[in-house]
């Protein structure tokens, strides 16, 4: 359980965050929109956020979960970072939850939890947990919700175990995409979104991720974390854009009509430096597909908005 921490006023943290963002190179600031602070995750339960997804039901709502070693729970927050609801999954035991995706399939809104972390490269089996996104009206008081999985996908990779922290759903193609963190370049693996049965699936290698050559102060700051490693991923609901997050920046990939995501991810992306966001590991794309939010594992974590 997270250690109690003193309340931190938003006004006290915003100036420091602004300085971090203002420290981005002037040339980059002129070429790309400067990231903006949209909110702050001040709830002490959100002290190691590793997954975030935009609601498919309610514009402006976000779903979040923490990293490994936590309870099987999600939090719904508003655009400012205020917790609206806590959703628990009775009977689910997380191993290493690393990413969260939202999608719509057959007219229903879903959330997909990626239990795919494997720092030691020893997991024989990983898992994706899919549940229907709950519908609720937010009030002043936090709600307590429960849910059971709609389906679960146990899987392994065709070659060997992989550490994966970036997972996206291509609902149009009925596929889940997984980006490896510790291969160079990162590999793209693919699974069926809704398998025909409950048998263990075997992820297929679908391609490799194009990695840009970055040279920014934020990259230098995170050099020890190896900034080229994917730590999060989000695919827009319209299927035209995807954000891949690293410790130093967000990479925007655009998909052309008639193109698969592995093909689109093989082209060099547009790069958005994100400043000194502490261990950035969670990313989402807004419902309109024109902006994204980023946050990290350091409490209290800002919600950083980028637009394109």
From TrEMBL:
Presence of keyword Signal: yes
Keywords of the record: Signal
Signal peptide boundaries: 1-29
Protein name: Integral membrane protein
Native organism: Tahibacter aquaticus
